[in-house]
TrEMBL record:
It is found in: Cytoplasm. It catalyses: sn-glycerol 3-phosphate + NAD(+) = dihydroxyacetone phosphate + NADH + H(+); sn-glycerol 3-phosphate + NADP(+) = dihydroxyacetone phosphate + NADPH + H(+). Belongs to the NAD-dependent glycerol-3-phosphate dehydrogenase family. GO terms for cellular component: cytosol. It comes from the Bacteria. Catalyzes the reduction of the glycolytic intermediate dihydroxyacetone phosphate (DHAP) to sn-glycerol 3-phosphate (G3P), the key precursor for phospholipid synthesis. Substrate binds at residues 106, 256-257. Pathway: Membrane lipid metabolism; glycerophospholipid metabolism. SUPFAM superfamilies: 6-phosphogluconate dehydrogenase C-terminal domain-like, NAD(P)-binding Rossmann-fold domains. Residues 3-161 form the Glycerol-3-phosphate dehydrogenase NAD-dependent N-terminal domain. It comes from Halobacillus dabanensis. This is Glycerol-3-phosphate dehydrogenase [NAD(P)+].
Length: 346
């Protein structure tokens, strides 16, 4: 099997490195911290991000980006969305061979409203890669690292390239599907983090399963509304990278977005919550991006707007729930049936 470079030794990068090592690839894991690289090579653990999980010695960690990517047929980018431009800037200096670039990050950039694959394409000259692929779906690192059954989807502009990434990762515990809808796959993964913050807030306030089910279904409706306005296929949101990821993130205490929301619902201030997490909470930046996008495109996203007000305008969570519950009466499926009708007539 060939050499694969995984960039980002947080929880998800380390878990994906494990899947690749299980598939007998030659895995080189890059971290920007020399101390962490040394610790992983010495202890075969990544205590901070995946405590207790034993890493095989076939995973070699390093903070030397050039040596990590040298000769790698595949480069997997798994840093937080916020760090993606910076890491791509470093990567383009050291990429020599034409590789397949896959990212597994979930976010949208505030200000530019770019999806992660668009950020990568902007930063890395196209002669350095065959295609940019996204890997997304309901997949907490903690469960993947225990080899518990997990399903994800890969997508790219060229479906054959996504199929190569499917081959790279698929195994008996990690089932990989393909999708031609790159936009829908990336947006589903990014936008579900906003709703997961909301589910955490709801739980933190002491509301029950009814409220959470409402957030998941009405959240999906507004994800599909924004996603479709950006060119996604609405059906993608009923798949693994839409409702699948929404369920896993809104209902699991593994989710950092849910955990952060839960603390907010209990009344802790955002800055304190983020500091205590020590891991990335992508939903915060993506809420800002989605809120701005929705305003610009005139797309109605009441839950996202409410979460934006809690995060950035110090709105009281209970007041926001009250406002959501007393909005003007609507037909439940109004916008989704309109979208589907339009698609059918295309
Ligand atoms: N965890 C999960 O279960 C899943 C996560 N994802 C997505 O994967 C992406 C990464 O998340 P995850 O691994 O969980 O995040 P973590 O917070 O666990 O780890 C992030 C890693 O990125 C590193 N990093 C941060 N900034 C930079 C930088 N400027 N240059 C280089 N490295 C940097 C961090 O290093 P440092 O220690 O120095 O901060 C850390 O090693 C996110 O977009 C997330 O949504 C997707 C599916 C599942
Ligand atoms: O995307 C994830 C699972 O699919 C992980 O979600 P969190 O970033 O909220 O932990």
């Amino acid at each position: 099997m060939g050499k694969v470079a995984v960039l980002g030794a947080g929880s998800w990068g380390t878990a994906l490195a494990l899947v690749l090592a299980d598939n007998k690839h030659d895995v080189h894991l890059w971290t920007h911290r020399e101390t962490l690289a040394n610790e992983i090579n010495r202890t075969h653990k990544n205590e901070k991000y995946l405590n207790d999980v034993e890493l095989p010695s076939s995973i070699k960690a390093s903070n030397d980006l050039a040596s990590v990517v040298s000769g790698a047929k595949h480069v997997i980018l798994v840093v937080p969305t916020k760090a993606m431009r910076e890491v791509c800037g470093q990567l383009k200096q050291v990429l020599n061979d034409k590789t397949i670039l896959t990212h597994a990050s979930k976010g949208i950039e505030p200000g530019t409203f770019k999806r992660v694959s668009e950020v990568i394409r902007e930063e890395i000259p196209s002669h350095l890669y065959e295609d940019v692929v996204v890997l997304s779906g309901p997949s907490h690192a903690e469960e993947v690292s225990l080899r518990q059954p997990t399903t994800v989807t890969v997508s790219s502009k060229e479906l054959e390239v996504a199929e190569k990434v499917q081959d790279l990762f698929i195994n008996r515990q990690f089932r990989v599907y393909t999708s031609p809808d790159l936009v829908g796959v990336e947006l589903g993964g990014a936008l579900k983090n906003i709703i997961a913050l909301g589910a955490g807030i709801s739980d933190g306030l002491g509301y029950g399963d009814n409220a959470k089910a409402a957030l998941i279904t009405r959240g999906l409706a507004e994800i599909a509304r924004l996603g479709t306005s950006m060119g996604a296929n609405p059906l993608t949101f009923s798949g693994l990278t839409g409702i699948g990821d929404l369920i896993v993130t809104c209902t699991s205490s593994h989710s950092r977005n849910w955990r952060a929301g839960n603390k907010l619902g209990q009344g802790y201030p955002l800055d304190d919550v983020l500091e205590q997490m020590g891991m990335v909470v992508e939903g915060v930046r993506t809420t800002k991006a989605a809120y701005q996008l929705a305003q610009g495109q005139n797309v109605e996203m009441p839950i996202t707007s409410g979460i934006y007000r809690i995060l950035f305008e110090s709105a009281e969570p209970r007041d926001v729930v009250d406002q959501l519950m007393t909005r003007i009466r609507r037909h439940e499926m109004e916008d989704l049936t309109n979208i589907l009708d339009e698609k059918m007539n295309e």
